[in-house]
Amino acid sequence: MLYPLLWMLASSFKPESDIFSSASLWPSHFSLEAYQRGWSGLQVSFGQFFLNSLLVSLSCVIGNVISCSLTAYAFARLTFRGQNIWFALMLGTLMLPYHVTLIPQYVLFLNLDWVGTFLPLIVPKFLAADAFFIFLLVQFFRSIPRDLDDAAMIDGCGPLRIYWMVILPLSLPALATAAIFTFIWTWDDFFGPLVYLTDINTYTVQLGLRSFVDSTGKSDWGALFAMSTLTLLPVLGFFLAFQRLLINGIATTGLKG
Amino acid sequence: MASAVSEAAPRPIEGAGENGWRGSGAGYLFLTPWLLGFFGLTLGPALISLYLSFTDFDLLSTPRWVGAANYVRIATSDPKFVAAMHVTFLYVALAVPLKLAFALMVAVILNKGIRGLPLYRAMFYLPSLIGASVAIAVLWRQLFSGDGLLNRVLALIGIQGPSWISDPDTSLYTLVALSIWQFGSPMIIFLAGLRQIPKDVYEAAEIDGASRSQQFWRITLPLLTPVVFFNGVVQTIEAFKAFTPAFIISGGTGGPIDSTLFYTLYLYQEAFAYFRMGYASALAWILVVIIAAFTALAFLSSRYWVHYDG
After folding, report:
1. B273: Cβ–Cβ under 8 A, 6 or more apart, which residues?
2. Helix axis angle, B79-111 relative to B117-130, nearest 10°?
3. Is residue A174 within 8 angstroms of chain B, CB to CB?
4. What pLDDT was estimated at residue A38?
5. Nearest to A96 by CA among B288, B105, B37
6. Is the ipTM of this complex over 0.85?
7. Are B276 and B98 in contact (CB under 8 A)?
8. Of A101, A206, A225, which is closest to B45 when you measure between CB atoms?
């Protein structure tokens, strides 16, 4: 299963002439040339793409964690008029393919003069656009005993303090799951940046890699694999660090991977 | 601010009324970001998109009402649409069942109590997690190119492989293979489901002399149908929306000769390459109808084949 990945990793360290001469994983001699060629292979270095991706992904994580947990708290722990209707509508948005809202959203962001900036990628996350995570957090919040709210309420806490001091600290595993999946999905997102980012200086790693494919074509597989490997690194890192959390998250909620 | 300051009021009995902290104020306060997003980014745009689907709109000039013309053209005289539908349905019909069968098979094997289960689970899940990235599509493009790794391995045993990606007869199958390779996430959900099946059912079956395959077909599979159903619906929806691999592998064209023109790729081309935004909106709504129809069909048929215990 992992052979193609390992082969890509190994090929990125092989001298160009070596990549296709054998299917063996071990390079005949170890070389970092491909990384050097790839890193500065475009007029903008991959360093810039990494910074951009990092900025977008971290902003999205913050946006999703804040806005989705606020929303989930309202649905799971507060009572208000029309609650069930809103909840049903929220679940309904889970099913709606983003293609339906894509074009009007594009027109909206175009009119706001946001196309070409990171805002169309980030702002929706602050408006709880990922219903998946709201749902995950609602399920989790509901499992926290109500008595805690009551006790805090008797001590004079309002909903905001209960949310902040009772619910959030008790929900760290769920919040972490949401944060990590948000990071990975944003990091890997290709479509959003493809539509909204126009200037190569703002490209994320996925767009950078795509431009690199286009500019080098088939001629420099070594550099292509080197840069591919680099774009996978943060995801691999998260995976190694949090695989238990990720696997439990998917097993219990069915979040796609 | 008043709503955040609460007196030691008696807690309302659940279900007895909608008044928590001074009525609904707090609830709506917390819901504000989502409500803005729901109206501004989902409901509003969805309605506008429905309107745009009846117009001719090139982004620069104002939308021009054309009635059902877009839909009529899609239904009657758009060979690209037919190609995209053909490609997408073929992809869904092949990739989803194969992926699920593979995921189930591996889950059943892993569930037998294999040593090093966490390692295998992680190993099989990893491709699912990174599968959407451009890097994997790049890798795939190399593996299946004419002089790629696969053909070099085949050459070792004397087989001359086709140039998978640039051959319209095989290009789609490379994407199906990629999808199957990412069987990890349904597999993990299957594993979780398998763990719910009580062991004593198998013990009883064993005593009655049921063979391994009988146990699978008569016990495991029926008891697992709710999970099969869930995975099936999720994976089908995902498959209809597949985009990145086809875009990267075909260089954004959906070629060779439209053999990888996924529906979403066609939609993207219409919207952002040709700026036919009205037409693309109509395409988007047809996708919604297709996905909704499939989901509804799955739910309707589930009465006949999904067994909830009881």
Report:
1. none
2. 170
3. no
4. 84
5. B288
6. yes
7. no
8. A101
Backbone dihedral angles phi then psi of residue B197, each to the nearest 5 degrees: -75, 125
Q: Is the sign of the CA dihedral A81, A85, A87, A90 positive or negative?
A: negative
pTM: 0.89
Bond from prior residue into B256 cis (ω within 30 degrees of 0): yes
Residue B134 to residue B275: CA distance in whole angstroms: 25
3-state helix/strand/coil string of B114-143: CCCHHHHHHHHHHHHHHCCCHHHHHHHHHH
Which contiguous run of DSSP H or E holds residue A151?
A: helix A146-154
> With a CB-CB cutoff of 8 Å, which residues 103-122 of chain B face chain A?
118, 121-122
The pLDDT score that the predictor gives to residue A22 is 63
Q: Do A99 and B287 touch (CB under 8 A)?
A: yes
Check pLDDT > 70 for residue B9: no
Q: How many CB atoms lie within 10 A of CB B297?
A: 11
By CA distance, what is A158's nearest residue in B? B4
CB-based contact B129:A239 (threshold 8 Å): yes
The number of angstroms, rounded, from the C-alpha of A109 to the middle of its chain's C-alpha atoms is 21
Query: Are A93 and B38 within 8 A, CB to CB?
Result: yes
pLDDT per residue over B56-79, tens digit each?
Answer: 999 888 899 998 999 999 999 999
Q: Angle, to 10 degrees, between the axis of helix A46-77 and the axis of helix A131-142?
A: 50
pLDDT number for residue B18: 41
